[in-house]
């Protein structure tokens, strides 16, 4: 039943985001983790949908789907959103987390910008983990309109439930690249 609800919710999110115009994909690589993202409307004002797969060399992986809305004003973009993730921590049971959060980006000009985000899921929004936190921030450089290069720092932790070990999927600097169509 949970799988049917999750699949139905994902299809509803996808249908809601069909009005988004811009498609993008990105890869970020840290010392012990890799994150692959795809999205619709993530860099333009309005509704956005994104998904990702993240793998940690030491602590497991996750697959996520997010939905939010981008508010833009004079170079600043605020992006409140929700994410649902299937988590597969190395040292505890598989589970899920439903997080709420906020992202922010500021473009100094057409080439340089800064960004950050924070997403959090308490125990009541999670299953088989106590809580989920994802904090990241960095700088971006766009040499051409369809390419963005990123450098930043990410900390993503799955806090263990019932005295299980915490699984830190990301904790360190990363570099990345995004293509926008």
From TrEMBL:
Q: Under which name does UniProt file this protein?
A: Porin
Q: Does the keyword Signal apply?
A: yes
The cross-references to SUPFAM superfamilies, in alphabetical order and at most eight, read: OMPA-like
Q: Which domain of life is it from?
A: Bacteria
Originating species? Izhakiella australiensis
Keyword Hydrolase on entry? no
**In the record, which residues are listed under signal peptide?**
1-22
Cite the entry's keywords alphabetically. Signal
A Pfam family cross-referenced in the UniProt record is: YfaZ
């Amino acid at each position: 039943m949970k799988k049917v609800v999750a699949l139905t919710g994902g299809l509803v999110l996808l249908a809601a985001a069909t009005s988004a115009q811009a498609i993008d994909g990105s890869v970020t690589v840290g010392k012990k983790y890799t994150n692959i993202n795809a999205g619709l409307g993530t860099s333009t004002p309005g509704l956005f949908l994104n998904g990702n797969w993240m793998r940690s060399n030491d602590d497991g992986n996750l697959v996520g789907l997010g939905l939010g809305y981008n508010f833009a004003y004079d170079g600043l973009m605020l992006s409140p959103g929700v994410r649902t993730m299937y988590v597969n921590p190395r040292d505890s049971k598989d589970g899920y987390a439903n997080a709420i959060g906020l992202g922010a980006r500021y473009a100094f000009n057409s080439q340089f910008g800064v960004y950050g985000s924070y997403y959090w899921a308490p125990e009541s929004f999670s299953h088989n983990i106590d809580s989920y936190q994802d904090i990241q921030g960095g700088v971006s450089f766009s040499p051409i309109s369809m390419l963005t290069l990123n450098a930043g720092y990410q900390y993503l932790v799955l806090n263990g439930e019932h005295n299980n070990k915490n699984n830190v999927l990301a904790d360190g600097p990363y570099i990345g690249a995004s293509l926008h169509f």
